[in-house]
Amino acid sequence: MVNQIKIRNPRTGINDYFITQPTVEQIATKCLNLRPAQIEWEKSGIEKRIQAMQQWKETIFSHREKLTQALVNDTGRLIESRLEIDSVANSIDRWCKLAPQLLSTESTKTTTIPFIQLQNQFSPYPLVGIISPWNFPLLLSLIDAIPALIAGCAVAIKPSEITPRFIQPLLETIAKIPLLCDVFTYIEGTGETGAALIEYVDFICFTGSVATGKKVAEAAAKRFIPACLELGGKDPAIVLASADLELATSALLWASVVNAGQSCLSIERIYVAESILTEFITKLTEKAKGLKLAYPNVESGEIGPIISIKQAEIIREHLQDAVTKGAVIHCGGNVENLDGGFWCLPTVLDRVNHSMKIMTEETFGPIIPVMSFTTIEEAVKLANDTIYGLSAAVFAGSEAEALAVASQINAGGISINDAGLTALINEGEKNSFKFSGLGTSRMGVDGMKRFMRKKAILSKVNSVINPWWFKS
C-alpha cells in the first residue's frame, strides 16, 4: 500500500502537496545504485567533476523561476528563497576554485628515517548521506553535498518532509547533467527515511535538533561511520556600555529576526549593560516596529510565516511562559493565524531571566529577549549558562574590549561588533561547543577535507637492511 504524506502550505495552512514514503528496500536500492557510478565519478578526475558542477549551476539558473516558486510554496517567503539559490551558486563556485589545490596529491617527502619516503594520498568516502532541515531547505541540503560531490563522493539527501516541494524541480536540473545524475539523488520521506539512510551510507551529515542529532550520532556509532552534526543553538549577544548602540541594535535586529528567526545562527538572547539598557531597548523597539509581515503577499514585508506548526506552538509557549513569570513585551508578542498561516511580528521583551524558557530553550522565532547585567563577569556567566555553544556576538567601543569578552564565551563562532557573521564568512573554520554539534567544521578547507580519508604511502628507497629487523 502506498503511504502518502500530506504537506501543509505555511501561508495558507492547506495541505496542498504530498510525498510518498519509500520502503526500506527502495532506500537501499537507491543507495546501492549510486555506488558503481561513484567509482567512475572519482576516476573521472577533479577537472571533469568541476566541469559537471559548473554545468549544473548553469542549469539551476535556467530553472530559477520554477525552483524559486517551489521554495516560496515550501517556506512562504521570497527574499530568503532567492538568497538560497544565489548562495548555492556561490558555494559551487567557491568549492570549484578551492578543490584543485585541496585535492592535489601531496609531494613525496623524506621521513625521519632517511631511506623511507612518505606520500599522502586522499580517498573519498564512497557514499555520503545527508539529512537536512526545513528552515533553509535548498541551501542546507546542499551545504555539505557540494564539497562532498567535488571531492569524489556520491551523495544521497533526505530533506525535511515539512518543505519537500523544491525536490522535484531540483532533480530535474540534476537529471540534465549525465555525469552527475548517477551519483547524486534526493529521497523523500519522514524521519524513518533518514534513519534507514544511515544504514546504507559511509558518512552522515545532519543539521537539525539536538534530540534527533543524538539519535543520528548513536546510529552512526553503531555502524562505525563518521557523523558531522550541526544542531541547535541559543546564541547570546553581549552589549557593553561602550558599544555603538545604533550599530548594535541594527545588527542584532537583523541577526535575531531574519528568516523570521528560523535559523540555528539566530541571536536568541541579548545581555546589555545596565547603564544603557533603557536606551538600547528604545532604539531596538523602534527599529523592530519598522519591520512588517510578508502578508498578504510575499512582497508585503520582511518577515515571513512560521514554517512549522510545531515551531509556532513552541514560540507561543515560550512567550506565554515569559509573560506569566513577569516579562514585559515592548512590541509584537503574539503568534497570529492569518488566513491559515502562522505569523509573528518581531518581538522585543525585557525583565526576563533564566527561569524562563525564552532564555534557556531554543525558540527559533523572531523573538528578542533583553536582560541587563552589572559586571562583565556576570554577562559572561549568563552567556555560558546554556547547553548550547554554536555562535555568539559581542559589542563594545573597541575591538580589544570585545575580544577580551569573546575569549571567555564557550561558542564556536563569535562575531565582534556585528552578528550572524558565521553564516556569511565561509573561511571561518569552527567547532560547535557542547550540544550544538559534533564533528569537523563544514566551514573553511575542512568543509571538503572531511570527506576524504588520508592514506600514508611509505616507500623504501634503497636496499639497506633495516636495523630493527631480526639478525640472520
Please list the strands of the largest sheet in the order they lie side by side.
12-15-16-11-10-17-18
Helical/strand content category? alpha/beta
Overall mean pLDDT = 97
Query: How many domains in all?
Result: 2
Strand content: 15-25%
Number of strands: 20
Helix run count: 17
Q: Provide the CATH topology of the largest domain.
A: Aldehyde Dehydrogenase, Chain A, domain 1
- The low-pLDDT segments are none
Name the CATH homologous superfamily of the largest domain.
Aldehyde Dehydrogenase, Chain A, domain 1
Q: What can you see in these coordinates?
A:
Helix 2 (about 45-60) packs antiparallel against helix 4. The model has no long low-confidence stretch (mean pLDDT about 95). With about 475 residues, the chain is an alpha/beta fold. The chain has helices at about 25-45, 45-60, 65-75, 80-100, 140, 145-150, 165-175, 180, 190-200, 210-225, 245-255, 275-290, 310-325, 355-360, 375-385, 400-405, 445-450, and strands at about 5-10, 15-20, 110, 115-125, 125-130, 155-160, 185, 205, 225-230, 235-240, 265-275, 330, 335-340, 340-345, 345-350, 365-375, 390-395, 415, 435-440, 450-460. The strands form five sheets. Strands 12-15-16-11-10-17-18 form a seven-stranded mixed sheet, with helices on both faces. Strands 7-6-5-8-9-19 form a six-stranded mixed sheet, with helices on both faces. Helices cover about 40% and strands about 20% of the residues. It folds into two domains: about 5-230 and about 430-455, 3-Layer(aba) Sandwich (Aldehyde Dehydrogenase, Chain A, domain 1), CATH 3.40.605; about 235-425, Aldehyde Dehydrogenase, Chain A, domain 2 (3-Layer(aba) Sandwich). It has 17 helices and 20 strands.
